[in-house]
Records
---
Amino acid sequence: MRRYLRRLRAFIPRQRSTSGRLKREELPELEDLAWYSHAEQAENASFWRMARRLPGLMGQAFRVAWAAAPAMTVTALALNVVAGVATTTALLAVTDVTMALFAPGATWDRVVDAGPALLVLAVAAGTRSGLGLVAGWAQQRLEPLVHNRTEAEFFRLTTQVPRSAFDDDAFADRIEASRNRGMRSVVMLVTDVVDLVTGLVTVIAVGAALAVIHPALLPLLFAAALPTGWAAVRSARLQYVSNRSRVSRRRRLWMLEMHMADRYSAADLRLHEAAPWLRGQHAAMVDAETRADFEVIRRQTLTRAVGQTASGVAVAGVYAVLLWMLIEGVVPLGIAAAAVVALQQGSGAMANLLVAVNQTYDDGLYVSDHAEFLEMAKERIADQPHLTAPAPVEARTAALPAPETIEVEGVSFRYPGKDVDALTDVCLTVRRGETTALVGENGSGKSTLAHLLAGLYRPTSGRILWDGVDIGEVDPALWRTHISMVSQQVMRWPFTAEIAIRLGRASAPVDRDRIESAAKAAGAHEMITGFDNGYRQLLDRMFKEGTDLSGGQWQRLASARGLYRDEGGLLICDEPSAALDAKAEAALFATLRGRSGRATTVIISHRLQGVVHADQIAVLEEGRLTELDGHAALLAAGGAYAELFELQSRSYVAE
Ligand SMILES: Nc1ncnc2c1ncn2[C@@H]1O[C@H](COP(=O)(O)OP(=O)(O)OP(=O)(O)O)[C@@H](O)[C@H]1O
């Protein structure tokens, strides 16, 4: 029996049990977030707090809409206001019609009496519909225009923030919140505000008509619409708070989903049988999401139930009061009939207005997320020393020449959120015409130093000086042109081979001869001319006639891109030959050696044979520079470099 049970258990999919076990230990994002600042304020927002925020939000929406399309903004708003006037006219005409129809006398006479008012009613109703149509047209055209503007600003900032912003999870959450809903909400806010103005105009119009019919009807209008409005406001509030607390988890979920349906992870996922684990993680995440959804639905349903009950009672009360007024002779039958029409239209308009108020406030909250992202991004852009620290005037305004010497002066660096330094007090001088090699074990800080030299990060302390000028204090636009980098993480641009190389200096005019010579120098030319479409070959299997490359082929293309950019300044190559075959590696190193005496080269390599010709070799250990000299001197010194070199040499000798 026990054996049977064991067999049976083996048939039950493992994933189910592992996903349960993995839940807490693997995925911190399972917990809802509490970092957001205005969640509680959102959940408990009173109507008056919302009302107080409305003018600000309306102003904000108006500014955004105006900037995107002033003519459409004015058209949408003005036509809605005029349509409101037509509404009042139509309602007052209804009163005249009913008064005439319910008056004593012969039927034909009463119909004839109602004729002029009926004509006014028809013209006013027609005008209102026509204006509404044109206003809707303007409003709909406004939406894509606002969206395009908002999106352009978003990507301007995401591409301008310093590289370090992407190492900060709080910034990643803000980007996600903004992209996921915040940006859309900017567009929606504009629509909401137009709806709000329309709703307000309609309510004022109906209110004016009601006040003319009988002033006592006005409070009845409010009483009937308020409970539903309250429920709508609270429901949206609950949804917002829930959404905000789930931003990180959704980011994680999206990442898992991408890896389960992506061609780059497809092979690894199968080879390592990683799919059950990923699906387990995904299931646990989805589980948490569904639980959060259910909780919101429960609370929203309760809220709506309370609102609808109260609204039903209020509407019954309104009609009871109207009936009482009729019985007591406070209003004649004709007025009462007009009041019923006006009240029905009025409560519809009130409900629309409250929904618009709520939508405006609600989208306003998501817009705050977007505003938080904008603020954070702008702060990070502004918080760069070249924008804040005083620098020599000539250094700030004129482009720097290619440096003769680059001094790394007591540089330490710590990644955001880390509690240890990746680099500690590194001092190094790189001279024009020389090759400097950075070597050391994995994680010793070589790439970090390369990124600092390339100006992608700024030192936590210490300075990097170009001929005595601290480049941290100079606008990167004035010196980045002298830097070219072949990164360890090869960027697989999914464009044509030519564009993939050209992107090394995207803003310069295309120089086909230069593209070809860069490809030749990187050992990529023959490979490219061998493609069906040569330099015009699309490097993306996801599109028609696209192809993919091998790891080494991508690396050749990356080197070609770096060499295309290079203009004899500083070229940094981070493991440029890791995936290359012997022939391509030899060609690349010959190219790099050819720079000797004229340009500055920094090369990171684990293959020490490739760096023996370097003018100086810097050895990094746990973020510290421990040895610095030429190959022969370092070998003679018998330190860490000598040990590593011996080890590598021995492992290449046949036993
Ligand atoms: N973006 C990052 N955020 C946080 N820590 C990082 C980041 N990049 C690197 N590190 C850490 O900084 C340290 C130095 O990493 P670095 O990439 O500079 O090493 P390396 O010497 O280039 O290693 P390798 O030989 O493996 O390429 C490591 O401990 C690494 O975990």
---
Amino acid sequence: MEGLRVGGVNIRRGGRNIVAGAQFSAPAGKVTGLVGPNGAGKSTLISAIVGIERPEAGELTFEGANLVAMGRRERAGICAYVEQSASTEERLSVADVVALGRIPHLPAWAVGLGTDDETVVAEALEKVGMARFAGRQFSTLSGGEQQRVHIARALAQEPKLLVLDEPTSHLDIRAQLQVLHLLGGLAKAGGTVLLALHDLNLALRFCDWLVVLDAGQVVAEGRPAEVLREDLLASVYGVYARLIEGPGGPVIAYEGTV
Ligand SMILES: Nc1ncnc2c1ncn2[C@@H]1O[C@H](COP(=O)(O)OP(=O)(O)OP(=O)(O)O)[C@@H](O)[C@H]1O
């Protein structure tokens, strides 16, 4: 299965190349991690993939269809996006925020959700452990609770391509494991999942495929344990680390900065 293909993408901002000739695949049926140090260009590249900005050059395709040329509604029928910092939906309830995910699936004349849509919304909240918050005003939630609701909104969209920018940054460790497990389940069901991630041990454990971005360029792509080698951790992240065998597979033990 083809999934997402990023081909020779250039993105300029402020008069300089932020992403330069990025080329990689996020295959369908896999969780692909996009990793790299602060400022590497991960969010910028993601903003082009989800259609927030147009790349200056290059191709972005999903299952062979050109994402750049797609209209908003068509793209929303395929791709859901969970932003790094959640925007404030001030007066909406939690259930209303998640219901926004159903909009691409509603007919143009619809005035509200159908029963099936409401079931999808309730299930999405259940999956992220937020069902009991359905009636709460979104703005009263904690950062981690808001992040879970945004993930639920993306799940309610039932996307073929799910793109998440650091979806676990505000989550406690249990919620991180639950969300990453959930994403693994979506991929196993045939979905394409791409997520920017800082925790390389979580990337090792939960990603099937890894893309490393450094200074706007893809410097490595492959299976996590083959990509996250000691020399790459030193050259890209500037850290000394050892890969040691943990009970559930390899684990990175950090030793210091280069
Ligand atoms: N409008 C802009 N003008 C100039 N530089 C910009 C602009 N927007 C972003 N940048 C720069 O582009 C680089 C990439 O930013 P981006 O947010 O994509 O990185 P990132 O890999 O997501 O980083 P982080 O891990 O810190 O979230 C950074 O150095 C940032 O300062």
